[in-house]
Specification:
Strand content: over 45%
Structural class: mainly beta
Number of strands: 10
Helix content: under 10%
Strand order of the largest sheet: 2-10-9-4-5-6
Largest sheet: 6 strands, mixed
Order of helices and strands: EEEEEEEEEE
Shape: globular
Radius of gyration: 13 Å
Number of helices: 0
Length: about 110
């Protein structure tokens, strides 16, 4: 099971750091994906960190968001800087095993 935290409301240009913490599994063995669902829109891909710690990003967040791991905390982070109103949505994490995904955390960026 994965649990996201760290969402909230922030002004445009601000930063947030989201956490995706695992229980019952060793998260370092999995690739972890971040997605977001903007209001009234379909879920969209945000970023990946592989089990080898390679990272990939959607073009819309490249250069602003950074995904990382802390294996001692069994947690993956999504550092979000220079936030824009279009970054608003419910952010969720999942692994490459579809059994393990979180419920999401709300991020709201005000203009």
């Amino acid at each position: 099971q994965l649990v996201e935290s760290g969402g909230g409301s922030v002004q445009a240009g601000g930063s947030l750091r989201l956490s995706c913490t695992a229980s019952r599994i060793t998260l370092s063995r999995y690739a972890v994906y971040w997605y977001r669902q903007p209001p009234g829109r379909r879920r969209e891909y945000v970023a990946t960190i592989t089990h080898m710690n390679n990272t990939m990003y959607a073009d819309s967040v490249k250069g602003r968001f950074t995904v990382s791991r802390d294996n001692t905390k069994n947690t993956v982070y999504l550092q979000m800087n220079s936030l824009e109103p279009d970054d608003t949505g419910v952010y969720s994490c999942s692994t490459n095993d579809p059994r393990y995904r979180g419920q999401g955390t709300q991020v709201t960026v005000n203009s």
